[in-house]
């Protein structure tokens, strides 16, 4: 190997030289491949059994989003669930706040492993639960606090499921996007950090008031 070749890196440039146009292109390609690999091997497995329109890509909730969601549930009790719990941060914080049992439903096995690791690291192993279950198939009739950070396309079918299964005493907290046909009892935050709380008893009363007018159409 020639002396000048020994100073070449895998990017085809000297260590001390700035990236040229080709280097930037190679870096962009490598970054794209890495992102695709992360999706394919870490995030996609749980999606394969879920209809396309009901799939929700993993997007971790920020600390303020989690704090706002739990602030609307402060003082409540009963089983608390996070539908699509991801890395488990909201479930863990809910338990810290005194909400128990605290359960997360998630299909992705890698995210379940991460959530259980976070619980173990926080000292809550065995005190919170992360279950590999499809949120569309799990029975929510014993849940009194439900948190959902899901896409707008999922909200209409999810609203029907919640109306059919949740007890009147339940509250639902939505993050990022509200339920379009429901009137929130309270809201907190602004922009991407805004969350909305819904009292299921009030939601059902509103639905019953609207039913006669809809039946006459």
UniProtKB/TrEMBL annotation:
One GO term (biological process): methylation
Give the stretches traversing the membrane. Answer: 24-44
Key words of the record: Membrane, Methyltransferase, S-adenosyl-L-methionine, Transferase, Transmembrane, Transmembrane helix
Which GO terms fall under molecular function for this chain's record? protein-lysine N-methyltransferase activity
The similarity comment for this entry is: Belongs to the ANT/ATPSC lysine N-methyltransferase family.
Q: What is this protein called?
A: F173A methyltransferase
Q: Which SUPFAM superfamilies match?
A: S-adenosyl-L-methionine-dependent methyltransferases
- GO CC: one term? mitochondrion
Q: Which domain of life is it from?
A: Eukaryota
The opening ranks of the lineage are: Eukaryota, Metazoa, Chordata, Craniata, Vertebrata
Looking up Gene3D superfamilies in the UniProt record yields: Vaccinia Virus protein VP39
Mind telling me which InterPro entries this protein's record contains?
FAM173A/B, SAM-dependent_MTases_sf
